[in-house]
Specification:
This protein is α/β, with parallel strands linked by helices. It has a single domain, classed as Rossmann fold (3-Layer(aba) Sandwich). The protein has nine helices and eight strands. The chain has helices at residues 30-35, 39-50, 66-77, 91-99, 112-122, 138-147, 170-175, 189-205, 220-229; strands at 58-62, 82-87, 103-106, 128-133, 148-156, 179-182, 211-216, 234-238. The strands form two sheets. A six-stranded parallel sheet has the order 3-2-1-4-5-6, with helices on both faces. A two-stranded parallel ribbon has the order 7-8. Helix 9 links the parallel strand 7 and strand 8 (234-238). Helix 2 packs across helix 3 (66-77), helix 2 (39-50) crosses helix 8 (189-205) and helix 5 runs parallel beside helix 6 (138-147).
Length: 239
C-alpha cells in the first residue's frame, strides 16, 4: 500500500520512521486511554504553559467536554482547593464531579452575571486564581476575565480555529495584573504521559467508563452527532 497522509478510513496505515507513537501497556485499558486520547495532551500542554497552580487555589473550567474534563482531573491531581466546572448538565457534569469538580454550574440554568457572582461569593469577593476556557465559544473568553482575582490567569484552550473578536479593556487588565495565555498543541511526549496517566488513574477515576457510546463504521455520522450534541462523553467507532 502506498503511504497515506491520513488513515482514518483505511484498513491499514503505514507509520513513518519519523513518527512518534506509544504502546499501551498490556494491563492498561484501551478505553481509559481513548477517553482522553487527544484531550489530555491538550490539557497537559495548556497547563504547562499556564505554570504552577498553588495548592489551595480556586480554579474555573469553562466547558465539560473531553478537554474540560481532562483539565478538571489535572487540577484535582494538582490539589486545587475548589474546582468549578461550567457546562451542560447531565452525564458530562456527573463525570466532572467524579474527576474532581467540587462545584458545578449549568450553562442552561444560569447566565454570565450569575456565574460571575457565584465565583465572587465562593471566594469571598476575591475571584478565581485561574480560569480555563475549554468551551470553544468566544463568549466564554469574554466571561472569563471578570471572574479573575487580581493577578489571576486565564488559559485559552478551546478557541483554535477561525477568527473572532471581543471587547477588551487593556487598562483594566493591566491594573488588575491579569495574564491571558494561549495554548495550541503540545509536545509529542504528552501523548506518552497521557498513556501513563490512563494506566495509573483508570481505577480511581473510572476513566474507561467515559467511553459511553460505540458505533459501527456505517454509523460514523451518528457517532459524530452524539459527540457534537453532548449526549456522549466519548464516542468510539469500532470498524
Amino acid at each position: 500500500m502506498g503511504r497515506q497522509s491520513s488513515a482514518s478510513y483505511q484498513d491499514y496505515a503505514t507509520i513513518s520512521t519519523r513518527a512518534a507513537f506509544y504502546r499501551i501497556p498490556d494491563p492498561a485499558s484501551s478505553d481509559a486511554v481513548i477517553a482522553f486520547g487527544c484531550a489530555m495532551p491538550t490539557a497537559l500542554g495548556g497547563l504547562r504553559r499556564l505554570g504552577p497552580v498553588v495548592p489551595g487555589s480556586t480554579v474555573v473550567v469553562q466547558g465539560n467536554g473531553p478537554v474540560g474534563l481532562a483539565t478538571a482531573m489535572l487540577f484535582r491531581l494538582n490539589e486545587a482547593a475548589r474546582i468549578v466546572v461550567i457546562g451542560d448538565p447531565g452525564q458530562r457534569m456527573a463525570a466532572a464531579v467524579r474527576l474532581g469538580a467540587t462545584d458545578t454550574l449549568s450553562i442552561l440554568d444560569t447566565d454570565a452575571a450569575q456565574r460571575s457572582q457565584y465565583i465572587r461569593d465562593l471566594t469571598s469577593g476575591r475571584g478565581a486564581d485561574v480560569v480555563v476556557e475549554a468551551a470553544g465559544h468566544v463568549s466564554a473568553f469574554a466571561e472569563a476575565l471578570p471572574m479573575l482575582a487580581v493577578r489571576g490567569r486565564v488559559l485559552v484552550l478551546g478557541l483554535f480555529s477561525g477568527s473572532t473578536k471581543v471587547p477588551f479593556d487593556p487598562v483594566w487588565t493591566n491594573n488588575r495584573e491579569l495574564s491571558v495565555i494561549g495554548s495550541l498543541g503540545c509536545p509529542i511526549e504528552d501523548y506518552g504521559r497521557t498513556v501513563n496517566i490512563a494506566h495509573r488513574y483508570d481505577n480511581s477515576f473510572g476513566l474507561r467508563d467515559l467511553v459511553t457510546h460505540r458505533f459501527g463504521l456505517d454509523q460514523v455520522t451518528d457517532a459524530i452527532s452524539s459527540a457534537t450534541s453532548g449526549s456522549a462523553i466519548k464516542a468510539v467507532v469500532n470498524p
